[in-house]
Structure formats: C-alpha cells, structure tokens
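Lab notebook, page 48
Experiment: co-folding of the full assembly
Goal: obtain a model of how the components sit together before planning crosslinking
Operator: M.T.
Materials (sequences as entered):
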Amino acid sequence: MDQSNHRIHQGGKAEEQETRERILAAARQLMAQKGYKGATTRKISELAGVNEVTIFRHFKNKERILVELLEEMTEIRPALDQALRTEWGDVKSLLVHYAQTYYYALVERKEVLIICLIEAANHPEVFNLLSRMPHLAVDMLEQKLRELQEEGQLPEGDFCAAANMFVATFFHTFMAKHWVKVDCEIDEPKLFESTAEILLRGIGGR
Amino acid sequence: MDQSNHRIHQGGKAEEQETRERILAAARQLMAQKGYKGATTRKISELAGVNEVTIFRHFKNKERILVELLEEMTEIRPALDQALRTEWGDVKSLLVHYAQTYYYALVERKEVLIICLIEAANHPEVFNLLSRMPHLAVDMLEQKLRELQEEGQLPEGDFCAAANMFVATFFHTFMAKHWVKVDCEIDEPKLFESTAEILLRGIGGR
Amino acid sequence: MDQSNHRIHQGGKAEEQETRERILAAARQLMAQKGYKGATTRKISELAGVNEVTIFRHFKNKERILVELLEEMTEIRPALDQALRTEWGDVKSLLVHYAQTYYYALVERKEVLIICLIEAANHPEVFNLLSRMPHLAVDMLEQKLRELQEEGQLPEGDFCAAANMFVATFFHTFMAKHWVKVDCEIDEPKLFESTAEILLRGIGGR
Amino acid sequence: MDQSNHRIHQGGKAEEQETRERILAAARQLMAQKGYKGATTRKISELAGVNEVTIFRHFKNKERILVELLEEMTEIRPALDQALRTEWGDVKSLLVHYAQTYYYALVERKEVLIICLIEAANHPEVFNLLSRMPHLAVDMLEQKLRELQEEGQLPEGDFCAAANMFVATFFHTFMAKHWVKVDCEIDEPKLFESTAEILLRGIGGR
DNA sequence: AATGAATGAGAATTCATTCAT
DNA sequence: TATGAATGAATTCTCATTCAT
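Observation: model returned without errors.
Model output:
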C-alpha cells in the first residue's frame, strides 16, 4: 500500500519501519524468554541495537509493544477451515492434515503464544486470545466429525471428547517441544499419523 | 498476638515454622498469579501478614522461596504406580482411574505447576521438574499397556502414541480449567470416561 | 502528644520524625527556590542528607511532599482576629498592629507562600490556599472599620477600598523584600506607621 | 500550506518571521501557564504548529526563548511619564489616570510578567526586570507628589509611603485578577477612583 | 526473633538537543 | 529551510536486601 512510491532517498519511511521491526523482534524474543517484566526496555533496546529512548518514539509505552505483538497472533480459523474443507478422500487423511495445520499454526505463533501463556494472568485481555485457539480448534473439529457422521462416514460417538483429545495431543506436543523443550526427539509426522489412526478407530471410523 | 515477649523460647520453633508456612503460602499464591517478578517481597509480606524483612530471616533471598516451593512438587510416581497396580477388573476402569489420578495430581500441585510453567524459561532447573511429570505419566501408561498386551488383554498397537494422547488430554484440560481458566464448564468424570472409552477402542481394546 | 514516653533507645520514632523533617525542610527550601519541578527528588535528598529512596518511604510520592508543605500554611484568621479584638486605645495603633500581624504572618509562611505563588497555576487546589489569605485580611479589616464607624469612631467611607489598599501595601512589601528581594532597604516599622497614618486620614479618621 | 516547495526563497524572510512569532507566542502562553520547565519544547511546538526541531533553528536553545520573551517587556517609563505630564486640572484626576496607566501596563505585559514572577528565582537576570517596574512607578509618583507639594497643591507628607501604597494596590489587584485569578469580581474604574480619593485625602490633598 | 529505617541497583519514561537528509 | 529519527542525561519511583535496634 504505502510502499513509499518514489524512494527518492532510502531513509525515511522504510528505515523507520525497519527500526520498528527490530524493536518488535527483540521484544518478541525477550518476552518469550523472560516474560513481560523480564524483558526490560534496556534489554530490548540493546538486542534491537537502538537507543532505549528510540523505543518510546515508536511505541507509546512498553505495554503497547505487547499489544502490538499480540495482534500478530491473527485468527487461526481460516487455516483450520481450509484444512477441513479440502476433499481428502478418507477421514484419516483429513485428521492428519488437520493435526498438521493446527500444530504448525501453533509453531508459527510460538513466541507470541508463549508470551500469552506467561502473561495470561497479568493481562486479562490476553485470556481470550489464548483460550480461543484450542477452543476453536476443538469446536471446528467436533462440528466436522458430526457432519461426517451425518454423511454416514462415521458412526455415532462422543465427538466432543474425541475432538478434545485430538487437539490436546498436539497442543501438548507443541508445549513439550517448543516451550519446555523436553529433549526427547519427537517425530511429528509419525505422531500425526498414529494419533489420527487411534482416534479414528476410537470413534469407530473403521 | 504480641505476647512473644513473654514466651521465652517456648514454642518458638512451632511459631517460627508457622510464619515460614505463611510466607510460603503467600508466595505460592502470588507467584502463581503474577509470576516470580510480579510477586514482590512487599506483596508477599503483606499477604503473609509479616514484616518484609522477616522474609529474609527465613529465606536467604527471594529465589530460595521459589526453590523451596518447587521442592514441594513431590514425585507423582507413587500415586500413578498405585493406580496401575490396583486390580480394576477391566482395562477401561484402569484407564479412568489412571486419568483421575493424574489429573488430580496436577490439580493438587496447581500453583507450583503454574509457577513452573511461567518461570520455565528463567529458571532452567525448573525444566526437569516440569517435563518429568507428563513424561513419566506417558511412560508408565505405555509400559502398562504393553504389559496388558503381553497378557493378551490388548492387541498390538502404537502404545506410545496412545499413552501420549491420553496424558495430553488431561494436561490440556488441567491448563484450560486451572490456568487460563477458560469459562466453559468441564465435567471431569464424564471426560475421564469418554476419553478412556475412545482410547480403548482406538487401540482395539474391545 | 506522642513524645515517645520512655525513649528507651533513642532511635525509632524520634529519629524517623527527624528524617521526615529534614526532607520537608529541604523540599521547602528548594521548592521555594526552584519551583516544584526544579526541586528534584535527587536534590532534595542531597540537601536533606538522606538517600533518594528514603524520601519515598516517608512520602508516597513527590506530590505528597508538596501537599504536606501546603498544610503547614495554617489559618491566618486567629492571629488577625486577635489583632482586631485587642483594645488599642486609638484606631491608628489598631491599624499598625494589624499591619504587623499580617506582614509577619506572611513572612513566617514565606517559603510555602512562594511555593504557592509559583505553583498556583499547576496545582489548582493551591489557588484557594493562596487567595484566601489576602482576601480574608481585607474582609476582616473592612468589617472592623465598619464597626468602628458604627461606634462613631470613624466617619463613613469606602472601607472596602481602604482595606484593600492597606492589605495590598503589605503584601507588596512582602513580595519585594522576600521574594523578588529588591535590594532597597525597607524600614518596616516606619512603613507600618506611615501607611496607617495615611489610611486613617484618607478615611477621615482624624 | 505545503506550498513552500515552490516559493523559491521568495517571502522566505516574512514566513520565517511568522514561524518565529508563532513559537514565541506559544512559549509565552505556556510559560505563563506552566512555568519555564512546564512549557516543554514539545508542547510549545505543538501549540505553535511547527516541528519540535524547528524551534532550535530559530532559537539556540530553550533559554533563549525565555530571554527573547523577557526582552519584550519594554520600558514602562514613557507611559507613566506621559500620564504625569498631562495637565489634569486636579490631583485626583492625575492619580486616577496614573493608576490606570500603571495597571493596564501590567495587564498588557501580563504573560511575561507572570513568567518573570515564576522564574525570578531561577533566572537572576529577571530580577531587575521584575523589580524595576513597581520601583519605578513608586519613584515617579513620589517625585510628582513632591513637585505638587512644592507647587503648593499639596501639604507636606510621607510621599514615599503614599506612592508605595498607591502602586502596591494596583499591583496587588493585577495579581489577584490575572495571576491567581481570584473569582471576586473587581470593578477597576471604581477602584481607581476610590483609591485615589483615599490617598489624596490621606496626604491632606483636600 | 522480629522489625523499622535505610539503601544501591535498576525500572520506565521525559526532555532538550543533534544528526542526517 | 525544515523535518523525522535518534539520543544522553535526568526524573520519578520500585525492588530486593542490609543495618541497627
């Protein structure tokens, strides 16, 4: 949009934007590592390679940085939606793909997610952002399973519990690998597959 | 209240212990609510109803409080062990009981667990404490399932993935309810049952 | 009242009070010299000979220091009242004494008054404190003159304007000598006398 | 507005002067309202509608703005001189007119005067500016009264005290109305008249 | 054993000012 | 000439911790 049409001199808008990004990147990393309080403006400025005060020229105050970061955590729904909409031939493929989509969505949002988890208690508005993700993932999957059942591809069953199990598994894995960083090697593709299989059989899907 | 003057060293030990407990309780609550940094010594002392300095007579420094709290997080193994050792008649009952045991073990350790989750990044020694629990729970369940299979009560299957799903589900639920405090009402007993059923069928257990 | 009855050990209450006083004195002096903003907590602490943080143990924040100082500026009414109530034999003596009372009341409140004058614009609550003094002095004098007239000791006249002139003269002198510190030597006793005489004759008082 | 590009150095001088004036006006207003420190360069630039840095192209530093403002406070002598030189028929008219002249001279210089009053302590060079006005007004009036006495229009008297009273009254009124903004309504013309009358009678002028 | 006073290190933030463009 | 970005110094205030009682 505002791609500084002419760029007569390289400085200006582009450079400003870059400084801004550097500050955000530094804050993202530090807050995920040390929490909101632990990521002091001094440390952020040092990591970003700018003067501490420069932060305050770009963001009204420290909290604004957090807000800006949280806004990065855009809606996950479209991705999940597409995963469910695609025709996969069989239900297992659908589940595997859904698992992938959800898991990598979490991984993509890794830092900000961790910030959310840590700051959930102190910044109440973070709650929604945070809880919405698993909640939505469960709801959407449950809904899909119900549809499949109506189409006759699945017998009846407790789809709510099933969806919950499925989503929980990948959130748990995400946490283990990217937050607590458990050292056990996890083979994600295999996990997607196995989990999908167990779930599918668990709800009588074959 | 102020009768300490007269009690010349009598019961001093008990009273001292009580003060200590009050400080720990206050710190436990505040750190779970606001994180390590957010739980200032001032706030802790106020909540504990003692003078701020008194904290430092009982604990070398603030970090020692954290360490002490973390040490509260006793081994979960004995409880799980007992759940698995009991004769339940059928596998489903076993699973339901295992789920209960694990879930309520988490709930019991709620505050300290949350502190661990929040401070995982800052206090590396917390890592082990934190990761050990789910890891152990998965391992033990996997082992048990394998035994059941050897006993002919279960067909072959990916018991690792299965155990992982099972444990993940309850950790996820624990987080939703006790940390992020998602407002959806969760009916735990029903969840234990449904999850156990799905898992059991998923691994061909009937 | 709370004169630390026993004073078993000299520290404690008495010493704390002294620190408090030292901080107030330093703030009083600096704020009168440099205004509220100019009197930084650092400078105050240095002049008071305490650590900067100690200030915040005694006063919630910097503004509280100002408020506390302003509260020093006690009611001027009783003094003026007594001056008017005393029997002086003649009106001139009354006026001279009233002048003295008002003038030295201002001088006594010198620093705080100057702080008020400087900060009137920024701290609206200071307005009242500040304006009340001359206003009250004029009102009370006007009232007295009216009484004297009713008693037949004075002819009729514009007592409001007269009282205003009288009070203004001494406020002006106070400012010249204690604030702007005009170097011209002012002989106050003589000024009181001359001003009283002129006023008295001006309202036909002899 | 943004047509400066085209105007190649034409009228630059005039425009520059205007910017300068806008900065001075903003500073004058803000410093009178909030004092020197309270009038930050940011606020000045915003009120003046210019970029903050532009201020420093016009004035070496913030202090120079103050100095420039103080220089605005032109001599009051010519106005007072003329008031005294005019033939008024009677002394009372002379006094009334002198009062008017002095009072409105103060009002005209209102902002800068207030700045002087507030900053007197911090900026010693302001002292003279500030004290000169009342001092001069008293001196000139005293001198005139003495002349009138020599001309036989007045009996002998303490003209110094008289002039002081007169001048003080109007300075006091000026302060009440334009600085501390006491809410009592003041009817200036009536005040001039009454004060002149009282003074005149007070020095035996009729 | 417990407490009130005191403090050094460091937090976020504001300010006047300089540097490039 | 004017401006947007950047900054060093300083400000108010908080925190964990020590000292003296």
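Interpretation: Chain B touches chain A through 47 residues (CB under 8 Å).
Next step: discuss with group before ordering constructs.
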